[in-house]
């Protein structure tokens, strides 16, 4: 099985991704690392532990960064994920505790223990990944791949016309991640806005798997209401769980290679700027930037079927 660490800010679609990964026989989850984002890092940590307890899996949870590296924190989007991060469902607090290590240290230690084997899946702002590189720059050469949900190459943003939420929450950390010498795959709004998860699918998963499926169905109602009240749609976008599908079956996606950098100030703050491979620019900002694989196409039906069958 492929070894993964999930860095996360649960979050309703984070919960979908985490249960998806727990149920996938192709994946071995080494641990969950947490960050602020949809909720505070303390609540994200509690929520991550709650998910391990619901799924009855014994994986460590390591708490990570509480604030962005260089900008003021943005408010938590409780209108999207609820005050509790789970759609205001009043779930009881978990019994377990986070491990003593920081998220960044946990990432470094796992990557050192299994050189070349660990894939980091990032579902929130990227502060923990940037910190891990700072603690141990060799990590970049020792991970298998970084697969992140965030950004957008050509699609509109979701927190500004050009910025996606995870990148906007810590643009400096994101720029560190995109310019480090590791293999990054970006799964952004270009593809996640092409996939709509609706209640019919969630109901079928709940029927087949009342524990995880029932929990996800209950959380998702707040999320789906947000999307259907704001946009002309009947369901929610499939953001974070797309990363898990990518790791299980990359053929679901079409990718383009290019350099990605992040705007860190001004009205474009949080934008992931994509320079397709082969183009060259005289601006020094674009010298020697490693190639990111940017997902631009997705087989939505295949993706949703993989999610449903894995969770059922
Ligand atoms: C991303 O932002 C968060 O609200 C979601 O959990 C997802 O990671 C989508 O822009
Ligand atoms: Ca998330």
Automatic annotation (TrEMBL):
Keyword hit for Cytoplasm: no
Keyword vocabulary terms for this entry: Glycosidase, Hydrolase
GO-annotated molecular function: purine nucleosidase activity
InterPro entries reported in the protein's UniProt record: Inosine/uridine_hydrolase_dom (IPR001910), IUNH (IPR023186), Ribo_hydro-like (IPR036452)
CDD domains: nuc_hydro_CaPnhB (cd02650)
Gene3D superfamilies associated with the record: Ribonucleoside hydrolase-like (3.90.245.10)
Pfam families in the cross-refs: IU_nuc_hydro
One biological process term in Gene Ontology: purine nucleoside catabolic process
Protein's name according to its UniProt entry: Nucleoside hydrolase
Ranges where the Inosine/uridine-preferring nucleoside hydrolase domain occurs: 4-303
GO CC entries: cytosol
């Amino acid at each position: 099985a492929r070894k993964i660490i999930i860095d996360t800010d649960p979050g309703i679609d984070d919960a979908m991704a985490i249960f998806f990964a727990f149920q996938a026989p192709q994946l071995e989850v080494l641990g969950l690392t947490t960050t602020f984002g949809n909720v505070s890092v303390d609540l994200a940590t509690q929520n991550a532990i709650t998910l391990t307890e619901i799924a009855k899996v014994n994986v460590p949870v390591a708490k990570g960064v509480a604030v962005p590296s260089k900008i003021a924190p943005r408010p938590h989007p409780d209108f999207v994920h609820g005050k509790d991060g789970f759609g205001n469902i009043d779930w009881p607090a978990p019994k377990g505790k986070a491990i003593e290590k920081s998220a960044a240290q946990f990432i470094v230690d796992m990557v050192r223990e299994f050189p070349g084997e660990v894939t980091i899946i990032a579902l929130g702002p990227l502060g923990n990944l940037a910190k891990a590189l700072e603690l141990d720059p060799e990590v970049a050469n020792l991970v298998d791949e970084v697969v992140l949900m965030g950004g957008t190459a050509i699609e509109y943003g979701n927190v500004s016309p050009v910025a996606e939420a995870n990148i906007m929450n810590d643009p400096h950390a994101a720029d560190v991640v995109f310019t480090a010498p590791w293999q990054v795959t970006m799964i952004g709004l270009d593809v996640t806005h092409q996939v709509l998860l609706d209640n019919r699918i969630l109901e079928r998963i709940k029927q087949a798997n009342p524990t995880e499926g029932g929990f996800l169905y209950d959380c998702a109602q707040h999320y789906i209401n947000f999307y259907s009240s704001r946009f002309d749609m009947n369901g929610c976008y499939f953001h974070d769980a797309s990363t898990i599908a990518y790791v299980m079956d990359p053929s679901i996606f079409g990718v383009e290679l290019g350099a990605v950098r992040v705007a860190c100030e001004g009205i474009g703050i949080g934008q992931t700027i994509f320079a397709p491979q082969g183009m060259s620019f005289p601006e020094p900002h674009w010298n020697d930037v490693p190639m990111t694989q940017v997902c631009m196409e997705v087989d939505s039906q295949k993706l949703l079927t993989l999610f449903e069958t894995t969770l059922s």
